[in-house]
Amino acid sequence: MINAWLVGTIVAVIAGVVGFFVVLRGLAFPAHAIPNGAFAGAAGANLLGVNILLGLGVCALLTALGIGSLGRRGRNDVATALTLVLMLALGALFLSRSVEYEPQIYSLLFGEILGVSTTEILPVAVLGILCIAAIVVLYRPLMLSSIAPEMGEAKGIDAHRMEMIFLVVLAVATTMTVPVVGALLIFSLMIGPPAAARSFTDRPLLAMLLSIGIALVTLWSAITISYLSDWPIGFFVGMFGALSYGVGRAFTALRRTKLLPVENEPALAR
Amino acid sequence: MHQFWGWIFEPGFFSSQPVRVALVIGGAAAVVSAIVGVFTVFRGQSFAGHALADVSTAGGSGAVLMGVNPLLGFVGFGIFGAGVMDGIGVQRARGRDLATGIVLGASIGLAALFLYLDTTSGATTGATQQILFGSIFTIDPTTIPVVIIFSIISIGIIAIVYRPLLLSSISDEIAAARGVSLRLVGLMFMTSLAVAVGLSALTIGAILSTALLIGPAATALRLTKRLGRAILVACVLGVGSTWLGVLLAYDSYYWGSSHLGIPVSFVVVALIFLLYLASGLPMIRAASARRTPTTSVMEVAGR
Question: What integer is the mean pLDDT of A80-94?
């Protein structure tokens, strides 16, 4: 149980930080595609008898680079969709070659946070620190190219290169989180809390902190309720993610009708 | 000569019932997906097109749990999800993707619960894999009429809103100025998309559903700038790769000595992906650019 709390906390912080930029840059689809692509890697690693984390990492990176390079001339959504189905089809091919895999499929898709072992924490922590470090180093150019790509270009920030770098960060974040919360649920955690946070405030740094906070509350309460009720954690993460977004939208709607004071801050690009 | 055909079509290809069902349903799904897909790609709604497959999966697993016909679960929940996406979606593309993501996240959570309850109730072993990956070779032949009816509904909706849909896909402003209700057209399109995707997700699996929706349409839109022609090309490419994929997957059982066939979904997706890559080759691009005048309306929206 202690392991679940520890890993859950690390995952929520990463999801809050990386997810903030996912929402800001409109990368919801790649954020869904990369963990699913990584899933193919797990199936492949299982077939070859290699470490699952290695398989996840390689395939997450392949998906990220595929999306980035195919989507070079706009049409990001088509590139993402095609890369995603190609990886999933590879996963289906690997699965057809191995037998007795179903429980593992389920846990890789929907996560197994309550069964995390102590040896699994270290790689998650290391990759997590790597992600946060990358975001800290890239913070200013990444923020600029997310909000005002033209201004970024003028300051010498190559928008496409920045996109590729961020997709790689997303791939690293995915690799460490998939075995813990599952391919499908890391997506909910990266979209719901940051989207909610952005409804509450327009200040980037505050929004990011809020996003971490909401992700933490979501995951902590999901772990608790899942432990008590024995229902899958993924259900609670998915529901709380959508719920926090709903509350955020309601808050924005209230603010629009001037029931709440409006912040006099320059708005983020919506 | 006989030997040659026997080499291409391994024994029993045409007399096999599952193969015939696969060819019919796969072909129908490919045609519907191609027609709806051209608009999906054109409008930049690939994410919604893919997400609806997962959303309907949640409905399908819920239906299994409640003992309702899975098809109703698939299509019904898909339409409901599409409505919610459209309802909370902001008009701009980024907001739309976010709305899609939220609905997708919630549905995946529900699917997790339903699948968990399905497996613990013990009645349906292998339900996870069946619903997530589907298989074109295990379709129940009695579903053919239902599939055809839903296909006609999906294409019918597109036919009804064809002109306003085309107009609003090219430019919201122009369409609004001409008196088109963007909300209604958008909702109609999403409904058609949900029916098409739910249907193909149930029969051929979520992977193939997205592949057939996006791949042939994106390839066709690279080859021609005219919408009618693009739909035709997409249909040909979609049906062609599905049938060829079924054939190769069937034959693959006879390759080598291990008798481990290659999954149909992999073969079809590989074919579709190769077609898409080939359509981006400079010489093919140049050839198709020569054939079609660049001043067509599609150019305007060919972002």
Answer: 89
Any idea what the CATH number is for the domain that residue A69 is in? 1.10.3470.10
- Contact residues on chain A for B222, CB-CB shorter than 8 A: none
* B153 located within any domain: yes
- Residue B14 domain flag: no
Domain boundaries, position A141: 2-182
Give CA angle at A149 (A145, A155), nearest 5°: 75
Q: In this prediction, what percent of chain B has a pLDDT beyond 90? A: 27
Give the residue among B188, B191, B210, B211 at the shortest CA–CA distance from B78: B191
Confidence band (pLDDT; 50, 70, 90) for B299?
A: very low
Q: What is the CATH number of the domain that holds B179?
A: 1.10.3470.10
Q: To probe the interface with B, which of A20, A21, A23, A32 has the most B CB atoms within 10 Å?
A: A32
Residue ranges making up the domain that contains B187: 32-301
Own/partner pairs, B12-21, CB within 8 angstroms, 24+ separation: B13/B247, B13/B250, B13/B251, B16/B250, B17/B141, B18/B137, B18/B138, B18/B139, B19/B137, B19/B246, B19/B250, B21/B139, B21/B141, B21/B144
Segment of A185-189, A265-269, B159-163 carrying the highest mean pLDDT: B159-163
Which band of pLDDT confidence, cut at 50, 70 and 90, is reported for residue A99? low
State ipTM: 0.85
Query: How far away is chain B from the Cα of A126, in angstroms, using its nearest Cα?
Result: 27
Picking from A77, A236, A238, the nearest residue to B47 by CB comes out as A77
A chain contacts of residue B124, beta-carbon cutoff 8 Å = none
pTM for the model stands at 0.86
Q: Which of B104, B221, B241 to mutate to test the interface with A (most CBs of A within 10 A)?
A: B104
Gap from B117 CA to chain A (nearest CA, Å): 8
